[in-house]
Design brief:
- There is one protein chain.
- By secondary structure, the protein is mainly α.
- The chain has helices at residues 2-15, 25-53, 59-79, 84-99.
């Protein structure tokens, strides 16, 4: 998961709040949360276009939209003080319990 930490340091930290309009902690949280929601919609929209509109190769668009989704997700996790490792471990535990996996 060092890649996520490196991306946060090299990209997210350098580009976050480029406009200077995020002033309060709430501003940062809301921008990140709305960014996650918006980019998840963009990922879904690319798949809609792939299957229902234009079946051209959309891989590059999908990669770019997932990159944007990761950008906001990593920032939101950081704002909550949650590591990617912690999040993935909790997800694994939850799913293993739900599906009876030891």
């Amino acid at each position: 998961m060092k890649e996520f930490e490196k991306h946060k340091k090299d990209v997210i930290d350098k580009t976050w709040n480029f406009s200077g309009r995020l002033v309060t902690a709430q501003d940062h949280f809301l921008n990140a949360a709305f960014g996650v929601a918006g980019e998840a919609g963009e990922v879904a929209d690319e798949h809609k276009k792939l299957f229902f509109h234009n079946p051209k190769d959309r891989r590059e668009n999908i990669v770019n939209e997932f990159g944007d989704l990761f950008y906001y997700t990593i920032k939101l996790l950081d704002l909550h003080g949650i590591t990617v490792e912690e999040c993935l471990a909790a997800n694994k535990k939850k799913l293993y319990e739900r599906h009876g996996i030891q």
